[in-house]
Design a protein that fits this description.
mainly beta; Jelly Rolls; Lipocalin; 2 domains; eight-stranded antiparallel beta sheet
Amino acid sequence: MNITAAFVLGFTLTTTAILQGAPDPNWLDHDRDRPLPPVVTPSTPGSQEQPGRPPSDAIVLFDGKDLSPWVAMDGSATKWVVKDGALECVPGSGYVRTLQSFGDCQLHVEWAAPNPPHGDSQGRGNSGVFFGFGRYEIQVLDSYQNKTYADGSAASIYGQYPALVNACLPPGQWQTYDIVWTSPRFDAEGLLLAKARLTIFHNGVLVQNNVELTGPVPWIGRPPYKAHPERLPIALQDHGNPVRYRNIWVRELGNNRHKEFMLPDALLETYVGDYGPPAQWNSVKIHRLPDGLLYLSLGGAELVLHAESPTKFYALTTDVLCTFDFSGPTKTIIIKVGDDEARRMDRTTQ
């Protein structure tokens, strides 16, 4: 198996999220033994003065103070700033993304365009909310009495679907996006099984109703889907306007796997190399893959590794855990396969 095939295999042969479609055949109608839904404290609505409260099971991505869940696209420190309880874009600083990766999810975002506004059309309060590590964009734009092309207006799926209605508030006011994201699915050969889907409420108004994306959303063109991991970071766009964000939270839907993170490129590069094998393994190698993944060659086995922490990685298709220990004079990888004894190997080449 080559690296490309392993890359595809590593993120396609997964336990997919539990999507509500048909009734679960494992339970009888009105089955008294069926577990009840878990209890969640609902979110509370905010106001122009104060953000609301996330639901009790949400992962809070921005609480008005802590910037640590966000980094630049390469994983380095972001140049966006926290000002008056908001995460504000610094024009020219580049996109920001989450450290954590997400698949199917419910995302809540509050945003405000600059006031007074500057420019018009696409030059007025322009930003974006991206899923799939920059692949799929929901447009953020000051569309209040601002004429532009329809599929580039606020709450559009950029270049594909205009919003059903324009629910924009005046510039400077806080607005909400409540988004349900369903990741595309690919088979073991990288062929598309199911397209991405989006449902969006803008300020409580339904503006995208379970639309099916045609593929990624670049500035121009309609490129086809290309296989990628199911879980990837969420990103916010720097389009040259100081758009502000607050009260950002996410709920993962039907996904009980490990948490997954996309670590900085510079850190991932330090793990690449050959490691001295125990007698039963001919070779142990770590390579880089796209989208923040590592690739492990282990005595003929080829596995894609996903980051659970800055030093711990797991494989989706086999019970393999890898831990990097660079704290001492040697750079070491610790590999545990199932219930076997963990084995330590020192790096021999980079």
